[in-house]
Design goal:
heterodimer, A: 300 residues, Immunoglobulin-like, 2 domains, five-stranded mixed β-sheet, 4 helices, 21 strands, 42% strand, B: 682 residues, mainly beta, Maltoporin, Chain A, 22-stranded antiparallel barrel
Chain lengths: 300, 682
């Protein structure tokens, strides 16, 4: 029986799709931009320190009203979203409040959201599917007024479905994820390096962000069908946010097979001189993150 | 052509003796539609297939003009009949089942018009000789090879070039071949900008049909039939971020090789036998940011259709038959459990794809063996056709649990027996009025792709449907015919995704889906003069589905309440002008009522409202076809021009959202578009 994807007809139409703009890049109101966990990958019962990034048109906000709530609801297989929709709509027990939080990972995290099957009296239940990096994630909901975000803490769980030998090999070769590290941001007008304190108004400016060479880690991924381990390298991408001006792209980055330690974006600076706040959020494909805030000065 | 004494009727097949000028008796296979038309059946014979406006001379596309057929999504190319999903409708050519009527993208059908004598659509309530599907039935009958010398035709337009050629061989024998080669990707590939090419999946396709007719004895003939089709397309939506790149490539092919043997005995009885073998392949790879999905299904098909007709009395005829098909499939799949999407999935255009990255490889064998019997009882004004089909299914997979370490894999197999009684009754109330009713039970086996221990459920069984159809056929004078039909279809045991957050192992799909489709349609045909003809088809329908435990039904993803098609053709001095107007209710969509930031990827995800609770706006379009025929010596030359969406109406084909799912916009379909081509016939 032949089944056709419903996606393709939609892609057909994309030629006639309107350009919706990079709406996510412009900070017009107070907004959650990202969060980071230390460590970036934690085992059950580990305590993890979380840091949020909340931005507003007047700069970074040390938001004490931010609520952190662990979601223990599993996502149905039928839902094509990273977490269960119920994590957004249900009342969840508050785990912490503030711009930073320290939360203990549930002891059953690898059962609820990992490769271990949940207990059941009526037969074995389906474990959670890993993502393409072999990762499992404990969702944490962030509430800021009516605004919601989901942070997914990468779980360090044992390998399931592998032979003993392969499990040992995996354990020996797998290093828990580390957050990537942003290093610098520089600007070029034409080919000319320009200080972030003196960027010309109404100009198209190339912004170049770099990260440390060890940000893109390599790690083994288990293939359950061939019962083998394959080595993968992390992909890295940047989300760009700004309080004025327009970026060409809201996210830029490099795939796993590109070892470039940086990414650039074009920014059309505002016509009106003044102070502009810019934030970078660097993501790696195993759920790690880093962020940086910069103050730009636009001059006539 | 009407049946008469001397014809052997085997359902829709008739072997009619034809005498050539040289005096040799040969046999011609003729499809008889009107006199044996089933309740709700619509047919498109002969030139109607070629000259349907908006179909670019394509037989399968012309089917979209019939009542009960929903307008497919632009570029979708899927057949939704009376609220049944595309994979619930069966397509049969000369008794051989094929897996797809349309090439990828839906621009062309997989069988050339030059190979098709007639095409009929039975949306429901068909007889016991067909099964394996909960929805409708498309039956195509191939043309016969020429009875003298040779004939041929070539058609070309901006999409593709096709040919059909035939020749008489020996005494009563002949061959017919048709094929098509698509080059849209080559033409537009050099015209479209690189950005558009990244978004617009230009399909590449070709197909071939062949038939060789061998007369055996005077009352006996055999045909060898070959049907092949192959498609591929690819699309890439580029992004400077690896989290936003989307690619998709698909390929699909099928081959059928069959032999049809027919014999008409002097006592009026007869037999047909159609064994066939086939090979199918579907493959698709999708990436969306960090998510990926790939699926590959390779199948070998073995089928046998047999029927024996025995006159029992002057007013009754028995048909005993067998319809069997076995499919062995090798399936490989990796990636998200929610890709490929299936009916009932909630999503929004532009939504980042998430989900897991599992993998599975499995083999399946699905056998359907169905003996059937039908009694045709025709006396006076009544025609009664009770039939009974006994469907036996054997479904097996080689893996009942997900792969795990060195644990040996254990398969699963089960047998299902399911009676499928059917009844059709027709009453000729007046010379111009006939009423029909049809009832029947139908079954469908799960798809091989659904029998995975990781992505599906290996123990899935049969889905069932009850069809009830009531209609009338009114011939008012010689210029007008009216066919109103009421229909109801009840379905249960439908395969759906497991909605629970804690499904048992190897039960990602459940078989608790129920659904119904009901409505009414009317087809009005008019031929007021030899130069003018047309028809109006209107369907009012509703199709809904749910899990059996759900409180309320939701609309089928492809539900369309109103479908109106009006077609008019005028012929004058070799010039054929046709107009088609289509109006269709927009398909249901699930509203986005909010969004949240997934900080792990930096992408926003939608929060959905009630499933399928809003619709796309109403679609309407006016299409024009003009064809002028020239006769030069023994050659017919016919250039044609089709103008699609003559009024340039901006039909909204999809909703799209900004990155934060805060603002909604529209994706519009084709603007006014001209397609030119020509046909040369010998």
């Amino acid at each position: 029986m032949m089944r056709l994807s419903k996606i393709l007809p939609l892609l057909w139409l994309a030629a006639c799709a309107p350009k919706m703009g990079n709406s996510a890049s412009l900070i017009a109101d107070e907004r959650i931009l990202g969060a980071r966990a230390d460590p970036a990958e934690a085992g059950p019962s580990d305590t993890v320190a979380y840091t949020s990034l909340v931005a507003s048109p007047s700069g970074t906000v040390n938001e004490q009203a931010l609520l952190w709530s662990l979601c223990k609801l599993r996502k149905p297989v039928a839902e094509n979203t990273p977490v269960s929709q119920d994590c957004l709509t249900e009342d969840l027990a508050l785990s912490a409040q503030g711009a930073q939080a320290s939360i203990r990972t549930p002891s059953a995290a690898c059962v609820n959201f990992g490769p271990l099957a949940p207990p059941s009296s009526g037969g074995t239940l389906r474990p959670t599917d890993p993502d393409v990096t072999g990762g499992y994630y404990q969702p944490i909901r962030l509430d800021l007024g009516a605004q919601q975000a989901i942070f997914r803490e990468r779980l360090h769980c044992d390998l399931a479905g592998a032979s003993l030998l392969l499990s040992q090999e995996f354990r020996a070769s797998y290093a828990p994820n580390q957050n990537p590290t942003l290093v610098s941001l520089s600007a070029l007008v034409g080919q000319q390096p320009t200080s972030l304190d003196a960027l010309p108004a109404g100009e198209r400016i190339r912004l170049v962000a770099t990260w440390s060479p060890d940000s893109a880690e390599t790690f083994p991924v288990f293939d359950s069908v061939s019962q083998t381990l394959a080595e993968q390298r992390e992909a890295l991408w940047l989300s760009w946010f700004v309080t004025a001006g327009v970026f060409d792209d809201s996210t830029t980055g490099h795939s796993a097979d590109d070892a470039t330690n940086g990414s650039e974006n074009a920014w059309q600076s505002p016509n009106v001189p003044g102070t502009v706040y810019l934030w970078l959020v660097l993501h790696d494909s195993r759920g790690g993150a880093d962020f940086a805030a910069h103050t730009l000065t636009v001059v006539p | 052509m009407k049946p008469h004494a001397g014809h052997l009727a085997l359902a829709m097949l008739t072997i009619a003796p034809v005498t050539r000028a040289e005096g040799h008796a040969v046999y011609e296979t003729v499809v008889i539609a009107p006199s044996t038309r089933e309740a709700g059946e619509s047919d498109l014979p002969g030139e109607a297939l070629r000259q349907a406006p908006g179909a670019q001379g394509d037989a399968g596309k012309a089917l979209e003009n019939l009542p009960g057929v929903a307008r497919p999504a632009l570029g979708g190319g899927e057949l939704v009949v009376w609220g049944a999903t595309p994979d619930e409708t069966r397509i049969v050519i000369d008794g051989i089942e094929i897996p797809a009527l349309y090439h990828l993208g839906g621009l062309r059908s997989t069988v050339n018009t030059g190979f098709v004598r007639s095409l009929s659509l039975v949306p429901g309530g068909y007889g016991a000789e067909f099964g394996r599907g909960l929805g409708g039935l498309v039956r195509a009958a191939s043309r016969e090879p020429p009875m003298e010398r040779y004939q041929g035709e070539v058609n070309a337009d901006v999409l593709d070039t096709s040919f059909a050629a035939g020749a008489a061989i020996g005494s009563g024998g002949g061959v017919l071949a048709a094929g098509r080669f698509g080059y849209l990707d080559r033409i537009l590939g050099g015209v479209l900008s690189p950005d558009t090419r990244r978004l617009f999946p230009l399909p590449r396709y070709h197909d071939f049909q062949g038939k060789a007719l061998f007369p055996l004895r005077d009352d006996e003939m055999a045909e060898v039939i070959v049907l092949t089709s192959a498609d591929s397309d690819a699309v890439t939506s580029s992004s400077p971020s690896p989290a936003s790149v989307a690619t998709q490539d698909r390929d699909r092919s099928f081959t059928r090789l069959g032999i049809r043997y027919m014999r008409a005995l002097p006592d009026g009885s007869g037999v047909t036998l159609t064994p066939f073998v086939g090979w199918d392949h579907t493959g698709q790879n999708q990436t969306a940011g960090l998510a990926l999905a790939s699926e590959s299904i390779d199948s070998t098909v073995l089928g046998l259709r047999a029927a024996c007709v025995v006159p029992f009395s002057p007013w009754s005829t028995w048909t005993l038959g067998f319809d069997g098909m076995m499919t062995w499939s090798t399936v490989q799949r990796a990636g998200s459990a929610t890709l490929p999407a299936r009916e009932g999935d909630i999503g929004a255009f532009g939504q980042p794809i998430s989900g897991g990255a599992s993998a599975d490889a499995w083999n399946t064998a699905i056998a359907n063996l169905a003996p059937y019997a039908a009694l045709e009882f025709a006396r006076g004004r009544w025609r009664l056709l009770p039939s009974f089909r006994f469907d036996g299914y054997a479904i097996s997979t080689n893996r009942s649990t997900p792969p795990s370490g060195i644990t040996p894999q254990v398969g699963t197999a089960h047998l299902s027996w399911s009676p499928a009684p059917r009844l059709a009754v027709a009453h000729q109330t007046r010379s111009w009025l006939r009423e029909d009713i049809a009832l029947g039970l139908y079954q469908q086996a799960p798809s091989p792709g659904d029998l995975s221990a990781v992505f599906g459920t290996p123990t899935l069984g049969l889905a069932h449907a009850l069809h009830a159809v009531a209609g009338a056929d009114m011939d008012i004078g010689r210029t007008l015919s009216v066919q109103p039909v009421l229909f109801y279809r009840r379905m249960w045991g439908l395969v759906m995704r497991n909605p629970t957050p804690n499904p048992p192992l190897a039960q990602a799909l459940v078989q608790d889906g129920v659904g119904h489709a009901y409505g009414a349609q009317i087809l009005v045909r008019f031929v007021p003069s030899p130069i003018f003809s047309g028809w109006v088809a209107y369907t009012l329908s509703r199709s809904e589905r749910k899990h059996s435990g759900d409180a309320s039904y939701r609309l089928l993803d492809e539900d369309q309440t109103h479908l109106l098609t009006a077609v008019a053709n005028a012929t004058f001095r070799g010039l054929v002008v046709g107009l088609r107007f289509r109006l269709a209710t927009g398909m249901p969509r699930t509203p986005v009522i909010g969004s949240y930031l997934d900080t792990t990827t930096g992408q926003y995800q939608p929060i959905f409202g009630a499933q399928n609770s809003i619709r796309l706006p109403v679609f309407y379009a006016l299409d024009l076809r003009m064809e002028k025929r020239f006769h030069v010596r023994s050659v017919d030359i016919a250039p044609y021009l089709e103008v699609l969406n003559l009024t340039n109406h901006a039909n909204i084909e999809e909703f799209t959202y900004d990155e934060q799912f805060a603002a909604r916009s529209n994706i519009t379909g084709l603007p006014i578009l001209a397609v030119a081509g020509f046909s040369i016939r010998l």
